[in-house]
Amino acid sequence: MTDDRLTGSECWPIRSRLFIGRITDRADARSFYRAGLMLAASLLCSCSGPQSALDPAGPEAEDVAILFFTMVVGGALIWCSVVGILFYASRKKHAYDAGQASRIILWCGVVFPTIVLGALLSYAVWLMPNIRPGFGEANARLRTIDVAGEQFWWRVRYQNAEGSAAFETANEVRVPVGERVLFKLTSPDVIHSFWIPVLGGKMDVIPGRENHLTLMAEKPGTYRGVCAEFCGPSHAFMAFTVVAMEPGAFEDWTKARASFDGARDAEGLALFLKHGCSACHAISGTEARGTIGPDLSGFGERGSVGVGALVNTQEDIARFIRNPSEIKPGARMPHFSMLPETDIQRIAAYLKGLQ
Amino acid sequence: MKSVIPREVETLWTLFTAPVVWAVHFLVCYVGFAVYCAKALSLHLSFDAVRIGLGVFTLLALAMIVLSAYLAWRQWGYGTGDPPHDAPTRQDRKHFQGFATLLLSGLSFIAVLYMAIPMIFIAECQR
Amino acid sequence: MSIELGNFTAEERAAQEERLRKVWGTPKGLRYWTSVNNSEIGLWYACTAFAFMLFAGGLGLLMRLQLVVPNNNFLSADFFNQAFTLHGTVMMFLFAVPIFEAIAIFLLPSMLGARELPFPRLSAFGYWSFLLGGVFVCGSIFFNAAPNAGWFMYPPLATDEKYSGIGADIWLLGLSFIEVASIAAAVEIIVGIMKCRAPGMRINLMPMFAWYLLIVAGMILFAFPPLIAGDLLFEMERMFDWPFFDVARGGDPLLWQHLFWIFGHPEVYIIFLPAIALMAMIVPTFSQRPIVGYSWIVLAAVGTGFLSFGLWVHHMFATGLPQISLAFFSAASEAVVIPTGVQIFVFVATMLAGRVIFSVPMLFGTGGLIIFVIGGLTGVMVALVPFDWQAHDTYFVVAHLHYVLIGGMLFPVVAGIYYYFPFVTGKKLSDAWGKAAFWLMFTGFNIAFFPMHLSGLRGMPRRVFTYPQDIGWDWFNLISTVGAFVFAAGVATFVIDILRPKPAPSEPNLNPWNSGTLEWTNNPAEDWGMRSVPIISSRYPLWDQPNLQADIEAGRFYLPDAKSGRRETLVTSVLDATPIQCLRVGGTSYVTIVAALALGGVFIALTFKWWIATIICSIITFAAIVTWLWRGTAQIPEAPETDVGLGLKLPIYVSGPASVGWWAMFITMVGDGTAFASLIFGYFFYWTVHDDFTAAAQGPGVVWPITALVLFVAAWGLTLLARQLNEKGPNGARIALVAAIIVTLAACGAGLAGPYLYAMDPTAHVYPATVWIVAIWAVVHGVVGAIMQLYCLARSLAGKMTGEYDQDIRNVALYWHFMAFTAVVTFAVVGLFPLVSA
Question: Where does the record place the Cytochrome oxidase subunit II copper A binding domain (chain A) (predicted)?
Fold first, then answer.
């Protein structure tokens, strides 16, 4: 489950290899332009990263990254020209005639921007329905994942083919590669914003509304998403893991998750139930059916504890159980430091073992 | 045209005619589509009907702006004098107003044209 | 234009100056603070705003320290949230807008050739309100009670009492108070620029600064009221549980976002345009030639003013509105680039056509432009919806907005301070210190903010109090923090340069930069502003009108004397600036401080829900304002006309559209009408978001609203009748006024009867709450209208209002035009729209 991309150190050579692969796939002029631009850009500013909008893993993010790099080049040229003219205007030997000078207002201030902006605007407006297509009926056919942003974690529900809830997980979104997925976004508390930079733009999660966002992953990998709208004390920790999987692997995973059994470690489960954890948390295959907090089935596989606050080791889990709000300010989970240390460690080991 | 619209209309307020046309056009387009997309189910109108209606309205707005530009051109003395119009006379004050109004009409014309771009490329209420 | 200038002997001049000093002098000792002179108010305003800026900058440094390394625990999450909320709030509301009001109040009279702005006491009232509100808002952080939901205060986070505590109330009430002060300043500035220019200063000769300020003040009038309306809804929800933003009861948090950003985006241009206005004064001076493209600047200012109201949804591109709506706002956001580009190229053209002298103001000015252009280009990017879906709410936007505001506002303001420092104190700031400050600020700024573009696109969201290691943000943040401290060192250098003692110049020179505009004729050592009000025949009178300075100082123009013992200034016509009135403005007074402090008391007491204190402060405020009006406005003069010099006699008292008071009322009511329109927008907004917006609840019926409508129209008619009758004699007018008061009060009763008798519960659902709020809005205006009618009756009975001197009733009649409009819209909507929509 480890991916180089998460450690950051070796990411851009890998990305470059991917680009070379791309060129041979689609050897038309446009993809050469795209690949060249992206390669140059990633060399220049090291834009790669598990959460980088400039390191796309899906078509929407890629279109936007291309648009951005094109604008950066154009913008840099414009900026250099303006600075150059300013510099020249303040250093020149002879003053220009006012009528002559005022022509620069018309040409550089009106005509040039009108044309450039008109073209840019037309392209961007044309792009909008292209990268976020579908509406109503068209979206109803897509694979749907319900995501609820809650202070300060993500509730993720997968649906069966027939549209009923199959299983629930938290702070981790898995999607099959090469398939457009519909996210239905809701919030029971405050406004959040659901954002997976490597796949595409964000969409606010607003109480009282169900916002829809469709995204497609093209490259398998493990990425990172975040809440982008300020939502309270632990806004900074409201991240989630995104795993783009090959379709086969994804199907296997959904099957395994739908029949997950959390009762394999009976002793740990007993402690979990005894100390009341199940009032808020559910674990498939057990009598823990709380719905207030995150569903913990498969918790051991997740990348972090406290939604990105800590790495997922047994010690970290124990630390979180002892005093959640010390790690995640404003977390609604009460502290359990009054429990015997052995019980805490045992529950932590149990949770780590839920894989 | 000269006899239809007397010169008495040339006050400080005529400066704002073209931008006001832009503002009204902007609001009508925004509110029109916002209400249509919110109430599409209960309205028996297609998106294209709204599009065409507002397209016609856009042409109307552009015509208004052209009219304002014509009046401004007249106020500017049909371009007989060049800027800067900084003499302390009533005549130059009027020429200045006319020229500024003409420029604003140009800007408003561009801004209304830009408003038409979304109506060309977007064909549904998708979000 | 063959007017013979006055000619006075040395003794006559000394006697004139003695009288002018006596009339315009600033009080000494503690009474100093009762001064209303524009030079004092402007200076206090500027210093206070600057102090708030340093405070907010300090908060910014604390935040940068917290973010210097990943997983830092230098600040707690809660303190960080308070810090960034206050940082944004203070910079926007307590620095950027007030500093321009300060500069406007300070400069405008001198620039326009007026002795004073028309309502000096209103300026003083605005200042004291601003000071009190600002200290209240800033001070809250020392009690750990500062607002902590972001400067945009999105509900439901900001309406959550448990999370936001009293901080949200402090924000809402403290800032509403300051917004009132801003609108007061806008009224002052608009009337000042339209009516108080020197004779001959036609609109094609107005200084660029005045053009910009006129537009900006107009924008304030349309931008701030929606926020005030939003604040009202918000505070009703927090205080009385009216569910405007609570989805469980039909509310919608997006309404707040609309109202906030209808204010919030024009706000950016309200900040930016005055700073560019300073540039438009500086660039011609240092190019030593008139500006090239005067009309283009007018195009740019007016165009930006309008277009800036079509941008607000670009802060809401990710809220899930239909794409077509987003695209419209994207189009307007791109269109606004054009006038902005024009402004920059006007400066470039002026520099090309002149010989540029590169001194410190120019350094800051062009440095600011270079920064601003980057902000403008990233602005073009984020205005494109697909890119904004990625960049929105990331550090990219943090970088963009700081490039725009620091390059487009702070640098030009610093340039303006270097430029105008001799105008204020008679001494220049140091070139060496200025250059050091510039290079520290310029490099520090870029080091601090440029990396944020990259950290943002690498996924770093805004407003996070910490971030994990190894996802590629560490270096960027470290560099940003280092840059922030270099930038702060630059600001500190600048502050030290201002504060350090400076020797008096060996040769006093009123115009050290050889500028061409009128303000440089003023002697900072005297309080009277213009020694005499000149006749203007050029955009740059000091360059083009020979001997102007000497003639002004010798009192050879208008108003060289103050024989009446009152503060007098000229009022001229709007377009061609022909003199029409000798206006007497208010002088030194306690009443403004009392009114401001008491009004502040109302807002502060409301914050803590001290109802009795609220009522007491309200009564004091009311009494203070009535005293102020009664004793300070529409005074019947000792003679109808007065000699203003050069053989010209002008009336002292005018009423109707010729008077400044009428314009002030008109402008205020335009703002008021905008707030009302925002509430009506809210009513229809709820209609669009719900299938059945009444939620099958009981409405106010038809009978009572229509009764109220008819009665309000009748009261309006009676008020107009009173105005007509007053011209013939007092008795008929008094009877009409008594009848009008009775009908108005009946109308108010009928207005509330609908929702009250149908037992509409405003806490149950948003529909009854909306009906109540618009009805209350109309009725409160009705009550104010009745008080005005009563005031006119009292003035008539006291002999202070006669057929000839009828300002009061004319202004009240003007109020009633707006009142009637408000009432008709309100009651037609609440009474009839439910029938139409059903």
Answer: 140-256
Q: What is the pLDDT of residue A26?
A: 39
Give residue A136's region: left, alpha or beta (phi > 0; psi -120 to 50): left
For C353, which DSSP code?
T
Please list, in sequence order, all residues whose beta carbon lies within 8 angstroms of the beta carbon of residue C799, skipping any fewer than 6 positions away: none
In this structure, which CATH number among 3.30.230.10, 2.60.40.2250, 2.60.40.420, 3.40.47.10 belongs to the domain A142-258? 2.60.40.420
Q: Measure C479 CA to nearest chain A CA, in Å.
A: 15
What's the whole-number mean pLDDT along residues C194-210? 95
Measured between CB atoms, which of B88, B114, B119 is closest to C538?
Answer: B88
Domain boundaries, chain A: 4-131, 142-258, 266-352
HSE-up of B51 (CA within 13 Å, CB side)? Answer: 14
Q: At A29, is the pLDDT very low, low, confident or very high (cuts 50, 70, 90)?
A: low
What residues form DSSP beta bridges with A205?
Answer: A192
> What mean pLDDT value characterizes chain A?
86
d(CA A245, CA A177): 6
What does the pLDDT look like over C122-176, one tens digit per residue? 999 999 999 999 999 999 999 999 999 999 999 999 999 889 889 999 999 988 8
Structure tokens at A294: 């995150």
Write the DSSP symbol of residue B76. Answer: T
- Give dist(CA A317, CA A313) in Å, integer: 6
Q: At what angle do helices C591-607 and C167-195 cross, to 10 degrees?
A: 150
Q: Return the pLDDT at A311.
A: 75
Q: Exposure of C187 by Cβ count < 10 A (0-12 exposed, 13-18 middle, 19+ buried)?
A: buried
pTM: 0.94
| Minimal Cβ distance to B126: which of A110, A122, A132 | A132
Pick the CATH number of A266-352 from 2.30.110.10, 3.30.1360.110, 2.60.40.420, 3.40.1400.10: 2.60.40.420
pLDDT at position C483, please? Answer: 98
Cα C109 from Cα C487, distance rounded (Å) = 34
Q: Which CATH class is domain C658-837?
A: mainly alpha
Distance between CA atoms of residues C476 and C474, nearest Å: 6
pLDDT of residue C429: 93
- How far apart CA C497 and CA C517 sit, in angstroms, is 26
Most A CBs within 10 A among C74, C352, C382, hence the mutation to make, goes to C352
Identify the band that residue B7 occupies on the pLDDT scale cut at 50, 70 and 90.
low
**Which tokens in the block code for residue C357?**
């002298």
DSSP string, C431-451: HHHHHHHHHHHHHHHHHHHHH
A7 contact residues in C (CB cutoff 8 A): 470
User: Parallel, antiparallel, or unpaired: how do β-strands A172-176 and A239-245 relate?
Assistant: parallel
Average pLDDT estimate for C626-654: 92
Q: Which residues in chain C have Cβ-Cβ distances shorter than 8 Å to A63?
A: 386
Task: Give the helix ranges, DSSP H, for A26-97.
Answer: 29-45, 59-91
CA-CA distance, B125 to A203, in Å (whole number)? 16
- Min Cα separation B127/chain A (Å): 7
DSSP A84-137: HHHHHHHH-SSPPPHHHHHHHIIIIIIIHHHHHHHHHHHHHHHHHHHHS---TH
Place of tokens 């002030």: C664
A197 vs A203: CA distance, rounded Å: 11
The answer to whether C105 and C192 are in contact (CB under 8 A) is: no
Please list, in sequence order, all residues whose beta carbon lies within 8 angstroms of the beta carbon of residue A141, skipping any fewer than 6 positions away.
none
Report which of A60, A61, A57, A65 is spatially closest to residue A33, judged by C-alpha positions. Answer: A65
CB distance C579 to C206 below 8 Å: no
